[in-house]
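Hi R.,

Here's the chain you asked about this morning:
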Amino acid sequence: MVSITEKGRVLSVNVSPYRGVKYPVAEIELIKGFGVKGDYHAGTERQVSLFSIEYLRESPIPPSELRGFVENITIDGISSAKVGDIFKVGNAVIKIKFVGKDKKHSSGRPYMVSRYGWFGDVLRGGMVRVGDEIRKLRSLKIGVIVASDKASAGEREDLSGKVIEEKIMEIGGEVGCYAIVPDDIELIVSKIKEFIEKDCDIVFTSGGTGWSERDVTPEATLRVIERFVPGLSEIMRVEGFRKTPFAILSRGVAGIVGNTLVVNLPGSPKGVSESLDIIMPALLHGIGVLKGWEKECGKKA
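And the predicted structure, written out as tokens:
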């Protein structure tokens, strides 16, 4: 089976407040939108740097002469990256912005193959330590539709959409389309279709799944989806019931349109967070099958 992710391991973490050689430390702290705390490149367009040890296995230069080439995170097990790739290491999330940087040996010979050095932006901060697993995730474009009369009128801050944005980083997702709309069936249908046309891999809706007259998100979704994915909604209700009996009152649905998944989530930030925690482990494989990146469930490679 072809995995949707590649996995590696952190061999060293390095930092320096000055330009030049970085030195190994026990751990580094990545700060969202800034970089490595205490590092010279923090706050620049090259917030954090990564280096694959695979280069040393191919390099004709003796390791003793490579002392000057140390990046913030040295890894093993992942040999390639491209602009836009998403890496998750520890709790931190990094998006690759640049690939490659030429360095020269004292003899003048170039000794870095560009594909092994990468620079990225910190999408989510966290501590990174030697031995941490690092995963390269397929970048997923996520659409978020918040259905709420009050939020659309500016009477209430949208917190649920922010929870979705944070949570989907776990699977390499970034919010590419976002909208707050009233609880109006035609507007919700229109936005779902618009986000599908904009090639969103997953469209999450939040709100409008209850029993009130204005709760019409499931009806809007049913107008659009072509194939049901009942398991997602069922498990969210069942597991949610373990925390509150009101979870089984949700009428949310999930389904597929072409190669886009549409999922109704609750309207509260807590409900969104708990629901995503429940379904997230299955989403990577499901999207992989839908996109053709992985073989179908139960089939042998």
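The chain has seven helices and 17 strands.

Let me know if you need anything else.
M.
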